[in-house]
Specification:
eight-stranded mixed β-barrel, binds ligand C2E, alpha/beta, single chain, EAL domain-containing protein, globular
Length: 280
């Protein structure tokens, strides 16, 4: 356990910090047990084409069914797994489960769909990542072109390392997208040389788009940047009709958000999908 960066905070809250340190250790041992006992599940959220209204894919989002604390969102445990390295086995579990599910949906007669999976920094830098992913694809029978790996701008800050990893990933045939785009500091020069396929516009720009003119401008700027670089673009966190209208006006091709569906369990997604295609 390491002390907080802010020394004053550490000194003035020492008893509470001990409590925090204890919670952290507890959570860590729960995580190990959770991995052994497969207490994790994936929720799926659709990505929708704004021109045709069709579902182009889903994003897999991990949840933890904690035996005492209930269903925990990723924000409550992913950061700790990134610190202690458990993100590597957890991330591998997520990839395998997502690929298995995609294959199962195709076998059940759903049209082919993209499956997006988030990668963390540590996973991105993991030794032989591309080989590991390739063997998961082979084991699950999932066609590589349907797997989309989401990275963040911060993972591209060392552009030589990132280029190498991204080329290896592209070589196995998967798609790459940049998540939460616009919140980091990626250089446009790098963006041009990286083999990425898609930009996902961060939810914060979409949320304020209808109130704040500069956020609306961000959307059109990212959309035209994507078009010039020949990349696809998805808006995240879409909740209202007004946002949909503005996104269409700004030529944004794809969207994801509570407007269409919250992230839901696999069986619910399947019935949601079937119902939607019947009524469309
Ligand atoms: P993300 O990849 O940007 O995922 C989108 C997040 O926004 C999800 O939160 C989703 O529930 C939420 N969201 C989607 N549409 C809306 C909307 O219309 N309104 C609002 N308010 N929120 C919306 P979630 O599931 O809590 O995940 C949070 C973050 O945790 C993800 O952000 C991702 O960075 C990370 N994460 C999730 N699953 C994994 C995983 O398997 N591995 C790793 N490394 N990170 C993961
Ligand atoms: Mg994501
Ligand atoms: Mg993210
Ligand atoms: Mg995001």
């Amino acid at each position: 356990y390491h002390a907080k960066k802010n020394r004053n905070e550490y000194q003035s809250y020492k008893p509470e910090m001990n409590h925090e340190a204890y919670d952290r250790l507890r959570l860590e041992s729960d995580l190990r047990q959770g991995l052994e006992q497969e207490q994790f599940t994936l929720a799926y959220q659709p990505l929708v084409n704004l021109c045709t209204g069709s579902i182009v894919g889903v994003e897999a989002l991990v949840r933890w069914q904690h035996p005492q604390r209930g269903l925990l969102p990723p924000g409550e445990f992913i950061p700790l797994t990134e610190d202690n390295g458990l993100i590597l086995p957890l991330g591998e579990w997520v990839l395998r489960a997502a690929c298995q599910q995609n294959k199962a949906w195709q076998d059940a007669g759903l049209p082919p769909m993209m499956m997006s999976v988030n990668l963390s920094m540590r996973q991105f830098r993991q030794h032989r990542l591309a080989e590991r992913i390739e063997s998961i694809l082979e084991q699950t029978g999932m066609p590589p072109q349907y797997l989309e790996l989401e990275i963040t701008e911060s993972m591209t800050s060392d552009s030589d390392i990132a280029s190498g990893i991204l080329s290896e990933l592209k070589a196995i045939g998967v798609q790459i997208s940049i998540d939460d785009f616009g919140t980091g500091y990626s250089s446009l020069g790098n963006l041009k040389k990286f083999p990425v396929d898609k930009l996902k516009i961060d939810r914060s720009f979409v949320t304020d788009m209808t109130k704040d003119g500069s956020d609306a401008a961000m959307i059109t700027t990212i959309t035209s940047l994507a078009r010039h670089l020949n990349l696809k673009v998805t808006a995240e966190g879409v909740e209202t009709d007004e946002q949909i209208r503005l996104l269409r006006e700004g030529n944004c091709e794809e969207a994801q958000g509570f407007y269409f569906s919250k992230p839901i369990p696999a069986n619910m997604f399947e019935s949601w999908y079937r119902h939607r295609s019947q009524t469309a």
